[in-house]
Specification:
By secondary structure, this protein is of the alpha/beta class. The protein has one domain: Nucleoside phosphorylase domain (Rossmann fold). The chain has seven helices and eleven strands. The longest helix is centred in the last third of the chain and has 16 residues, at 235-250. It is globular. The protein starts with 14 loop residues before the first helix and ends with a helix. The relative contact order is 0.19.
Length: 252
Amino acid sequence: MWKYPDDNTRAVITAKEHIQSGHNPQNLCLPQTAVLFYMHSGEEYLRQNYPTHLLCEKLPRFLRGCPVYQFDLDNHFCFLDGGGGAPQAVDTLETLAALGVKTVVTVGMFGAFGENVNSGDIIIPNKAFVEEGTSLHYYDFIEYSVPSPSLYQRAVKEITSAKSLPIVSTDAVYRQTFWKEHLWREKGAVGVDMETSALFSVGSFLGVDVVSVLIASDKHPLREEDPAWAWTMTQETRHQFFEQVLQFVRRL
């Protein structure tokens, strides 16, 4: 763990200070709800199929800013690329919180390794085991993190095709060994991504409501003798998934 109980000093730089620095746009006003995409083509799909407009060309996060768009049919939410991996995901979340965002729905993919989960299945994680390093700078100790209870309950109720199951988030793409995935299954986890546990933990730390809606992009072999890993996500599956999440967000 890298958060020390006796450390009472302030951060050298905060998201608010970074936003107010000279090379960032001023007076950016965002809706209180944001949708963060952690998978390819999410923002593109909304912009091509619905009326939207550009709110800002570059979100003033620390790591590689991105465009922020607003959905015109229900202009209470904005949407953007959430980044890649826990550090950039939390950079985005800290920045949005500093800009007044109160509710975040994250949309992404996970690799399935659970016996009861297959490619294309949608889950709303009820917990995410922490195997990424970012959360460890916010908490003295944390084994797993959870979504906002009220937002999670609403998502489970309204996205009826989704399963409610745990996942694990890791920084090491190429160290998801068969042994580790066996241990993860014993904990009850059914899949792995790179961001969700950090988004849950830091959302709670900041007082931002966060829920994740994820789709299984592929099914990992459960044993070393099983057929090798293969990518199975299709464009049609992506688009159907985006529509389900969009209808949920529009009702918030």
